Amino acid sequence: QVQLQQWGAGLLKPSETLSLTCAVSGGTFSAYYWNWVRQPPGKGLEWIGEISRVGTTYYNPSLKSRVTISVDTSKNQFSLELTSITAADTAVYYCARAQVILGPPLRLGQIDYWGQGSLVTVSS
Amino acid sequence: DIQMTQSPSTLSASVGDRVTITCRASQSISTWLAWYQQERGKAPKLLIYKASTLQSGVPSRFSGSGSGTEFTLTISSLQPDDFATYYCQQYSNYSRTFGQGTKVEIK
């Protein structure tokens, strides 16, 4: 049974850095890509980015300048940092697992498991 | 960037109805499309991937079709658990984009 357990600060001030970590249990950590997705209150889902076990990253172009996703394979964990946050970054943040479609070429597959979500509120 | 447009935004239906949701991509994504169901306050749940492949454990009343730029999610006979919001997502070319969502409400 794959489980994704996430944690991080829930209340931040404008201009601070958002940091979240997701720990994965069950399944093979190395065989997947690891994602962050967010959802502002009452709105739709927005993909933030993803990372492989060796640190290959893909980011949403609209957030790329502020986002860093990192991985710690020794702990089966991956993390999100989002800098210079504003009220517009208030959202529920989800970590998630994505399948990898072996090639050639290697392709990113569907997201199939999600964490429970963490509400991050940005307010002065 | 590939944009995904879902229609309708809201759909009112009754238990037992056949329901169809459409998702259009701004450029061809072959069949690299997934559908998710999200209940209020919960994480999304994968229903369909590669446009038409049913995820393990998902009831067979859910089906997906399409390729290129136009896709549909069909619920053959709406059940009480199906009143939720549905999202399409493309995963072509090392990026992902979600549609804006379709809320299925009780009529």
Q: Proportion of β residues of chain B?
A: over 45%
How many beta-strand segments of chain A? 11
Largest sheet of chain B: 7 strands, mixed
Class inferred from helices and paired strands of chain A? mainly beta
Overall pLDDT of chain B: 97
Structural class of chain B: mainly beta
Shape of chain B: globular
The succession of helices and strands of chain A, N to C, reads EEEEEEEEEEE
User: Which stretches of chain B are poorly predicted, pLDDT < 50 over at least 5 residues?
Assistant: none
Which quaternary structure do these chains form?
A: heterodimer
Rg of chain B computed from alpha carbons, rounded to a whole number of angstroms = 13 Å
Estimate the global geometry of chain A from the Cα principal axes: globular
Query: Overall pLDDT of chain A, averaged?
Result: 95
Work out the radius of gyration of chain A: 14 Å
3D structure, described in words:
Chain A has strands spanning 3-8, 11-12, 18-25, 33-39, 46-51, 57-59, 67-72, 77-82, 91-101, 107-114, 118-122. Helix content of chain A is 0%, strand content 55%. The model of chain A has no long low-confidence stretch (mean pLDDT 95). Chain A contains no helices and 11 strands. Chain A has 124 residues and is an all-beta fold. Chain B is mainly beta and 107 residues long. Chain B has no helices and 11 strands. In chain B, strands 2, 4, 5, 6, 9, 10 and 11 form a 7-stranded mixed sheet that branches. Chain B has a 4-stranded antiparallel sheet with strand order 1-3-8-7, with no helix packed on it. Chain B is globular and about 35 Å long. The mean pLDDT of chain B is 97. The A-B interface holds A 35, 44-47, 50, 58, 60-61, 94, 96, 98-99, 107-112, 114-117 and B 1, 32, 34, 36, 38, 43-46, 49-50, 55, 87, 89, 91, 94-101.
